[in-house]
Design brief:
- This protein is of the alpha/beta class.
- The protein is built from 8 helices and 5 strands.
- Strands 2-1-3-5-4 form a 5-stranded mixed sheet.
- Helix 6 (about 100-110) crosses helix 7.
- The two termini are about 35 Å apart.
Amino acid sequence: ALLRAKSYYTIGLYPIFLAFGSVYLEKLLDSGWLRYLRPVAVLVPIIIFILSFQLMLPVLSPEEIVSKSELFEKFNLNRWEDGEVHRLPQDYADMLGWRELAGIVDSAFVLIDDKENTIIHCDNYGQAGAINYYSKQKHAQAYTMSADYINWYPLDEFEINNVILVKERFDTDKDREKEKPLFENVTFVGEIENEYARERGTRVYVLAGARQSINEILKEEIRRRTGGGNILE
């Protein structure tokens, strides 16, 4: 709360609060006139849930949240970690566009003939997780240099010839000038267009026909990040 971190970062504390709190309430309401307050102890969280579930759970569509923006802004729910007030709470905006991204990657994979020697390289773990979960095609797993994914690249299993590259909306190299010397063909496939998605503008490219060892480039980048530059950055 003091450092204004994301609220769900404290989720590990809740089991402790629930366990100790329930035991404390049981002892507190065990005798005397306080035992008549036991039904109240049960009703209070139910009433709070009924009054707040639309705000705390993703039961409303993005359009409905925008239409009730005054209510959400009243409780400062639309203020993101960047300090700015947006149209949706950050947690909701983070989750939008995941299926759309997986669909774009699926369509990119169809364009590749040599599917066995293809890797999906993402900018962050949210993109990689979304692709691996929502993809409807049987293709290579998505990887990224962020979080634990950095340890899972199959760089010793096959020689990478093609890369499906997923870049964040903040990336400024829209024409992939960094990668053009490394591949025979660089093709833009599509981008997230959902206007409410935090990752709106995330772009997907097909980099086909490697001219250099992509495995070695990625290995060097992994060594650098784990304490050991990558053109695919």
